Automatic annotation (TrEMBL):
Keywords recorded for this protein, A-Z: Methyltransferase, S-adenosyl-L-methionine, Transferase
GO molecular function list: O-methyltransferase activity; S-adenosylmethionine-dependent methyltransferase activity
Coiled-coil residue windows: none
InterPro entries, per the entry: Cation-dep_OMT (IPR050362), SAM-dependent_MTases_sf (IPR029063), SAM_O-MeTrfase (IPR002935)
Name recorded for this polypeptide: O-methyltransferase family protein
Amino acid sequence: MPKFTLVPPEIEAYADAHTTAPAPLFDELRDVTYARMSSPNMQVGSVEGTFLRMLVALTGARRVLEIGTFTGYSALMMAEALPDDGALITCDIDPEATDVARAFFLRSPHGRKIDLRMGPALDTLKTLQGPFDLAFIDADKPSYAAYWDAVLPLLRPGGLIIADNVLWSGRVLQPEGPSDHAIVDFNAKVAADPRVEHVLLTVRDGMMLARKR
Ligand SMILES: C[S@@+](CC[C@H](N)C(=O)[O-])C[C@H]1O[C@@H](n2cnc3c(N)ncnc32)[C@H](O)[C@@H]1O
């Protein structure tokens, strides 16, 4: 199973210990995810989750789009920073993981801001109307380039796209499998796109932040 982090575990633990502690519900969500899911480390975790929440707060986002709900950690984190009338649409295809997400959304006062759409994200994206203020791409890697093409037009000028796992446990340096190449191609695509300014951060497994001009 990929580690989904390039940061040594003791450094990750130190960063975690010096990051605002998430509400206890997030600890429970982490524990349930690790007990029930076969790839629990897909969950963004507290450092990246808190960073996402901070980005939503700093950008003043009111409408957020997420591709890749899993058990709901990142969605719930970002929803916490939305205003009362804010909204987050999140997409997934996995009924088992999203059953967990739904149960936790119901237990949070911020869960009512979240609209979970089941089905392949590329189909869901065709049904959505912009503008969104912020989008978080964190689903199947071979579709990243297609998600970029579909999401950027839905984003308002000045809006932010965040893509996760763009260092792919370091395999971007020696790509072999289809997902490795998909991430390499995605990063090159973003870097060549004049519609955005972008920065690739070495947070956890790599986060691409791209601001629409
Ligand atoms: C890395 S996980 C998301 C983790 C989540 N952001 C979190 O913090 O817990 C990726 C998710 O993408 C979903 N996914 C994979 N292919 C998809 C597709 N074609 N459309 C929508 N979701 C998809 C998977 O079911 C999985 O739950």
